[in-house]
Amino acid sequence: MRLRPLNDVLVVELDSDEFVGISKPDLIHLPEAYEGAYKKRSKSGRIVSWGSRCRYSYKEGEKVYFSWYDNRPSFTEEGKDYRLVSEPELLAKDEDA
Fold first, then answer.
1. What are the backbone angles phi and psi of residue 37, rounded to the nearest 5°?
2. What is the pTM (predicted TM-score) of this model?
3. How confident is the model at residue 53, as a pLDDT?
4. 93 and 62 in contact (C-beta within 8 Å)?
5. Beta bridge partners of 35
6. What is the pLDDT of residue 42?
7. Which residues of 32-65 are buried (b: 16+ CB within 10 A; e: fewer)?
8. Residue 22 has pLDDT above 50, yes or no
């Protein structure tokens, strides 16, 4: 990927989504638009790149946890999901992973 973020923005490769433990009854038909309600969005991922004004030091592949806001851009490239996350949205870094 050749995307270079600006300022305090990071490009994060999202971990795969998980299904929530809600069982959908077979008697109720839900349109495909509601199928996403049964998925839990990934709020963690691995750092791909970061902007020049980030205050902390990062390493490529480091696992981070962040807040999820729907107005943030996300995209898919070569079957992998990515998200642009600003540095204040980061909650934690996993130093063991």
1. -70, -20
2. 0.73
3. 95
4. yes
5. none
6. 74
7. eeeeeeeeeebeebbbbbbbeebeeeeeeebbbb
8. no
For residues 70 and 41, the answer to whether their CB atoms sit within 8 Å is no
Q: How many CB atoms lie within 10 A of CB 83?
A: 22
Terminal CA-CA length for the chain: 22
For residue range 33-87, what is the model confidence (pLDDT) as tens digits?
A: 555 554 557 789 999 999 999 999 999 999 999 988 778 888 999 989 999 999 9
- How many whole angstroms separate alpha carbon 47 and alpha carbon 11? 6
Give the model's pLDDT for residue 29: 58
**For residue 24, how far is the Cα from the chain centroid?**
25
The contacts of residue 88 (CB under 8 Å, 6+ apart) are: 8
Can you read off the two tokens belonging to residue 61?
């592949």
Q: Which residues are registered as beta bridge partners of 13?
A: 46, 82
